[in-house]
Amino acid sequence: MDDTKLILEIKNGKVHLFDELIKKYYEKVYYYCYRHLENKQAAQDLTQEVFMKVIKSIENYKHYGKFENYLYVIAGNLCKDFYKKESRYILKEVEEGTSEEEISRLEDKVMIKEVLNKLSKEEREIVILRFYHDLKIKDIAKIMNSGISITKYRLKKAMKIIGENMKGGQL
Q: Which of 7, 83, 106, 169 is buried deepest, with most CB atoms within 10 A?
């Protein structure tokens, strides 16, 4: 059953069909969150939260595009909220002491984040959706609520920035 029919059936009281939606999209949403957070437990927690939000708001859902894109928008917002909360605790963790292996992993994450942080929020999101989730430009444009040409431009600009930083030995 396609997503539109499935959601219509759920709205008509067949709530047991949520299981089908969860089975279909759980892994994709999880990997989306994981790519943003690089934290398995947080990605699992946020994935569950995405589906809880969908369950609570399914009656208000309007089908304007792919349901998958709707899930990515929710997941993206939750990841942003998580980053805001997490940034308060990073310094405390480092101060408490870590092993050399943990320090090395933190350094790698910091280097990748530094390059990604050189991108605008929109460019970073486009790169993640395009290369980690293999979405098409038109789907990314819908998720980002922007036009196809601006999405292409932002991706090209992001790739130029990434390329320059890789050539400069900064990655």
A: 7
Q: Cα Rg for the chain, rounded, in angstroms?
A: 18
- Give the pLDDT confidence of 49-94 residue by residue, as tens digits: 999 999 998 888 887 778 998 999 999 889 888 877 765 554 444 4
Burial status of residue 28 (CB atoms within 10 A of its CB: 0-12, 13-18, 19 or more): middle
The domain boundary residue, chosen from 77, 97, 117: 97
Contact 112, 36 (CB under 8 A): no
Backbone angles phi, psi at 99, to 5 degrees: -75, 170
CATH of the domain at 77: 1.10.1740.10
Per-residue confidence (pLDDT) for residue 156, from 0 to 100: 92
* pLDDT recorded at residue 24: 95
Whether residue 92 is found in the same domain as residue 120? no
